[in-house]
Amino acid sequence: MTNKIQCETHGEREETFVCIHVTGDAAGLGFNREEPSEEKPFPYAWCDDCELIFEAHDGWNDESSKLTEIVFFCSGCYERARIRNTHTTVTLDDLADLRWKCGSCEEWHTSPCLDFSYAEPYYWSQEYEKVNAGDTEFDKEIPATFLNEDYCAIENQHFFVRGIIHLPIIGSAETFCWGVWGSLSRENFETLLRGADEPERVELPEMFSWLSNQIDGYPDTLSLKMYAQIQEPASRPIFELEPTDHPLAQEYHYGITAERVREIMASRLEGE
Predict the structure, then answer these.
(1) Which of 134, 151, 160, 177 lies closest to 213 in space, CA to CA?
(2) Within this chain, do residues 78 and 197 fall inside the same structural domain, yes or no?
(3) 23 lies in which domain range?
(4) Are residues 195 and 120 in the same domain?
């Protein structure tokens, strides 16, 4: 049984060991390890430079271990390091010349597009626009039905917040972002809305949420389980997807390739 450690980012997770080079924001340095097994799901891992040491000394031993620095990691940070440093056939740099037209500004851009979003929850309809209170000040009473850029309420029964799902891109420190809406309980919604400008909001516990958009190109994404991690004022919550077999959850936890980024761009953008 592996030891547990407490991580500031991921909470209590399995203890793992990696070379220091793959920590932090390092990307594209290689991620070498033995094949994971049931007994060792997170085997010791090292970068390509440390692989040269490994090969020159026929493995890790007292002598070779002196030539690198080993640090411990939680299993969540381990997986993020694996995603960032694993080599891929196609990289984001290979998408640098892609030209695409933005649907918002109508301008042409040349670069990979890493951000797509939804302006409203799936459950918002045109009939609600007639009574939409929009950007009303919420210091006294929250309207029964309203939609603005960050929050939504429908008939004083259903409540939503706009946030971001970050999909890590394999071999890169970049992430691909889905800007989506998630449901909140009435209590959490009111807490978040009333404290929208309070710096202390970052100390709020994570909030349970159901994904409230149908993202094109996936099987049904409505009501996937998520948790909203509250950020500082003026920053939208970050949604953490619960691990499941759903393709979106798989991409959230194991990353997507640059090829997959190109595929999403091709399906959603006008390009040359």
Answers:
(1) 160
(2) no
(3) 4-85
(4) yes
